[in-house]
Design goal:
Layout (H helix, E strand, L loop, with lengths): L3 E2 L15 E5 L5 H15 L5 H4 L3 H16 L4 E7 L2 E12 L4 E8 L8 H16 L4 E7 L3 H9 L3 E12 L2 E11 H14 L1
Parallel strand pairs: 5-6
Antiparallel strand pairs: 1-2, 2-3, 3-4, 4-5, 6-8, 7-8
């Protein structure tokens, strides 16, 4: 199994020591660890996304990871975990992936103990880079509730453009949310990647 380092990280506090972070595939055999992670962050993660409602027990955790294993086998989606100092703390995924059409949608989640370290931005960069450079994806989307300021900031840090707002399009826990659609196009991503490389 591969692991991609995501460090060096911003410290969680002035007294925090160095912690290593890695991006790895998240697979059905890791259902118990996935459920424990979800239990730690259930309330926080579930503020804007329904993942904690879907992953309610060990069977549903395994089923969810199997769904993405099947999607990976069909080349229509993928899921990756983020481990911080050896503990699963969040993840990123291709909620949709259509290589023939050249489009995909990226999503994310994170438990509160790992917030503010830049983990989601770093992990999303890794998978977007793979999608654009290795697979030739032309359009990468990020769909987020307008109320989810942290996720909107990630889209901005990734160099995405806000395409528009789908007003009250997502009914979640009795509230209708405006959903923002952000995107980055393959040529834009390659250009920003080249600029970053030249600046080193």
């Amino acid at each position: 199994m591969f692991a991609i380092p995501l460090g060096p990280l911003r410290p969680a506090s002035a007294t925090a020591g160095d912690e290593s972070a890695e991006l790895r595939p998240l697979e059905p055999w890791q259902a118990e660890e996935f459920l424990a992670h979800m239990d730690r962050g259930r309330e926080y993660i579930g503020e804007y996304i329904g993942l904690p409602d879907v992953v309610a027990d060990l069977d549903s955790a395994r089923d969810y990871l199997q769904l993405y294993a099947d999607r990976q086998a069909a080349d229509s989606g993928r899921i990756y975990g983020i481990w911080l100092a050896g503990t699963l703390v969040g993840g990123v995924l291709f909620r949709t992936f259509d290589a023939a059409a050249g489009t995909c949608e990226v999503g994310c989640w994170l438990e509160p103990a790992a917030v503010g370290r830049g983990l989601i931005t770093r992990a999303a960069r890794v998978i977007i880079d793979w999608a654009v450079v290795e697979r030739g994806i032309h359009r990468v989307e990020w769909v987020v509730s307008s109320e989810n300021g942290a996720s909107v900031k990630v889209a901005e840090r990734l160099g995405m453009t806000r395409d528009g707002v789908l007003r009250q399009s997502y009914a979640y826990r009795g509230v209708r949310h405006d959903m923002e659609v952000w995107s980055v196009l393959g040529p834009e991503w390659r250009k920003s990647r080249a600029v970053a490389a030249d600046a080193r």
